[in-house]
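Could you help me review a protein record that somebody else here produced? Do not assume that whoever made the record got everything right. The record follows directly below this note.
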Amino acid sequence: MQELHLLVILAIGGFGGLLNHLYIHDNRFLLPRLTGNDGEIGIALGFLADFILGAGAALATRYLILNGNNATVIAQAAIALIAGFGGGSFLAKNAVELEKERFKTVATLQMKTNAISLHAGDPKRISEMVARAEKASCIYELRKIQNEMRISVR
C-alpha cells in the first residue's frame, strides 16, 4: 500500500476545513484579528481555526481509521478531505446552537428584569428577534441580530 505523505494529508484536511469555513460562514472568508474584552487581548483565528481543525481531523482519521487498511492514495485523499470538512462542521454547528441558546436566554432575562428600557411594542420586537435568531444558520447572522437589538433598545 502506498501512503500519502503526512504533509499532503494535513494540507488536504486543511483544505476541507477551509471549505467547511466557507460553508458555515455563508461564503465569507473571516480573517484573523485581535480581540479584546475588559483589558484582555486575544486572537480570533478566523479561517485558520477551521484549517487547523480540518488538518487535525484528517490526521486523526488517517491514523485511527486507515492505519493498516489497504486504501489507495485516492481513497486516502478523499477521506482526508471529508474528515477535514466534517470535523469542523460538527464543531461549528454545535457552536451556532450554543450561541442561539445564549442569545435567547439573554433576551428573555433582559425582558423579565427590565434591564432594557422597553417602549411600546419593544417586547414584540424582541420576541421577533429571538424568533429570527432561532432560524439563524451561522454566528454571523446571530451577531447581526444582536447588534440590531442593541440599536433598537437605546
Q: What stands out?
A: The beta strands are 33-37, 40-44.
